[in-house]
Design a protein that fits this description.
The longest helix is centred in the middle third of the chain and has 28 residues, at 127-154. The chain is globular. It has three domains: 2-123, Rossmann fold; 138-154 and 157-203; 206-366, Rossmann fold. The chain has helices at residues 12-21, 34-43, 50-63, 81-94, 110-121, 127-154, 163-177, 181-196, 215-219, 227-233, 244-253, 261-269, 281-290, 307-315, 336-355, and strands at residues 2-4, 25-26, 69-74, 100-105, 207-213, 236-240, 297-303, 325-330. It has 15 helices and eight strands. It is an alpha/beta fold. Residues 361-366 have low confidence and may be disordered.
């Protein structure tokens, strides 16, 4: 068996560590490129969303390298995500690839469900070995997310643009190679120290913009044309509402303690949306309500044809919390120049609003 996971941000790094420690032949697929998107559009049903298409395109490129087993996200809720693995597997088989696509439900059986899938893929490895490998992969995930959160703070104020991105890229590669906890901890500490020493413009107070929306397009830079970096270049501090490590911590580990972050977000959305509508639509509304007094604005990322995010998009203008929201629809037609024009106009609006005293930086009424 040769195993791979389609790209979704840096998630391949902890999973590579996990599977290699279990003796599984794990291959990192080629990164998402224009060729990935071209393959995705050619072989996907037209009406499906960009997450489906890019996941499929990445699988096709990996299958060309001899991959025969894929691990991907799945689900059993209202969103169409629950159908994707089987449809992608059938398309790959129709293209002549003898592959199996194994899906892990994002809420189904939570941690136990994932560990059972890992045990099956590892040819029934001992539980103690699986748990040790999983813990080390999780440590890499936490290190990556912690460093990235510092990058988001440094990016808008660095004098030499691109410095924090380069440090993060270098750290990601080093964490990918790290093989013990001591090395991993040192990498995390050293990288954060380097980021804190980056020369900054201390005279500016960056705008703070939250990024929310559908899970995949928020986490995969290729799908959103690297909106976080582009906002950073415009002097905006990004607060991404989705980090895989936090999602795992609150959804899988701390539920018994009553520390479910999603429940808090759902509670915030209740005046406007009473129930789950699938995907991340409920969370998108709740994030706006919950952070209205903290953010200057919100960028809402939504795949084209994604019904949960369409519902959220239409609710957001009607809330009492009047922070500006820019919705960006992500699909194969999204052009970089058009997106940059919209981001520049949005940032101009937020700056005018802050100067007028109604933004986050001036403690005005929101």
């Amino acid at each position: 068996m040769r195993l791979a996971m389609p790209h979704m941000g840096n998630i391949y790094i902890p999973f590579r560590s996990l599977f290699e420690r279990l003796g599984i032949d794990y291959v990192i697929p080629p990164p998402n490129t224009q060729r990935t998107l071209s393959l995705a559009v050619r072989y996907s049903p037209e009406g499906l969303c960009i997450p489906f298409k890019l996941l499929l395109g990445n699988m096709i490129e990996a299958a060309e390298l001899g991959i025969d087993t894929f691990l991907t996200v799945g689900g059993c809720g209202i969103c169409r995500l629950g159908y994707y693995a089987k449809i992608q597997e059938q398309i790959l088989c129709d293209l002549g690839y003898n592959v199996e696509v194994v899906s892990v439900g994002v809420s189904e059986n939570k941690l136990a469900g994932l560990l059972k899938k890992i045990k099956r893929l590892s040819q029934d490895a001992p539980w103690i070995k699986i748990i040790r490998a999983f813990r080390f992969g999780l440590a890499k995930l936490y290190a990556l997310d912690k460093i990235e959160q510092v990058v988001q703070k440094v990016r808008p104020v660095e004098l030499l643009k691109g410095t924090s991105n380069q440090l993060f890229s270098r750290a990601s590669e080093a964490i990918n190679r790290a093989d013990d906890y001591a090395t991993l901890k040192k990498l995390e500490k050293d990288t954060i120290s380097e980021l804190n020493e980056v020369t900054r413009n201390n005279e500016v107070e960056p705008l703070i913009v939250g990024i929310t929306g559908e899970f995949y397009v928020v986490l995969e830079p290729f799908s959103n044309l690297d909106v976080e970096s582009e906002l950073g270049k415009l002097g905006v501090e990004v607060r991404r509402t989705t980090f895989v490590s936090n999602w795992i911590k609150y959804s899988w580990f701390l539920n018994p303690l009553g520390l479910n972050e999603k429940a808090r977000i759902h509670q915030a959305a209740l005046p406007y949306l009473k129930r789950d509508i699938g995907g991340d639509g409920w969370e998108s509304v709740g994030e706006k309500v919950l952070h209205a007094g903290e953010y200057d604005g919100l960028v809402h990322l939504a795949p084209f044809t994604c019904m949960p995010e369409i519902v959220a998009q239409n609710i957001m203008p009607a809330t009492r919390e009047k922070i500006p929201v820019l919705t960006i629809i992500c699909d194969e037609q999204l052009a970089k120049s058009g997106m940059l024009t919209r981001l520049e106009a949005f940032v101009d609006l937020l700056q005018c609003r802050r100067r007028a005293g109604s933004g986050n930086g001036h403690k005005g009424k929101v």
